[in-house]
Amino acid sequence: LLGRATVFADMDDKRRAAEADVQKVFALPQGVAGKKELAKAHFIMSLILRADGKEADAARNLTAALELDPQNAQFHFMLARRYVTTREFDKAKASFKKAIDLDGKKPEFYREFAEMQTATADYEGAIQNVTRAMMYLADRDKGPYYLARARALRLKKDFKESQKEISKVLALNAEDPYAHLEMARLYQDQG
After folding, report:
1. Which of these, 52, 81, 136, 165, is most buried using a 10 Å CB contact count?
2. Is 106 helix (H, G, I), strand (E, B) or coil?
């Protein structure tokens, strides 16, 4: 029941079906749905509400999910993303760290943490987190991570190392538009 809801939560035309599936879980007699299933239902509802622009309701459902399943790394990751959106960077940092402590093998946790660190001028932390993320990736999947590291290095004014990272992306795909954009930014920043 909730598997389909997870897939549909981000798709405009399917959100109502997902919401109906979640409401069925909420309507079950007390004790029928376990804590983890209820937590997942609240989590999915938070995704639906966020997509609908109802941030306060989404936050309440995410909080409920975390209260029911505080050891769920994905829930902490989504809370971190929410804090980044609201520019509560200290809270985001704590939530990213919690997500990574619970499941340290998800490259996206490290990459998004690194993106926040880059945005807040913690370039060393960003470089370290991107490097950690890359330990869990096949070479063919590292392009966006090389670019994240290149951006942090460029903003740190380490232009030579930034260019090396961009070159790694171009070795994977010579036509990567994001790599060319980052190279243009690098040249612009170099003056």
Report:
1. 165
2. coil
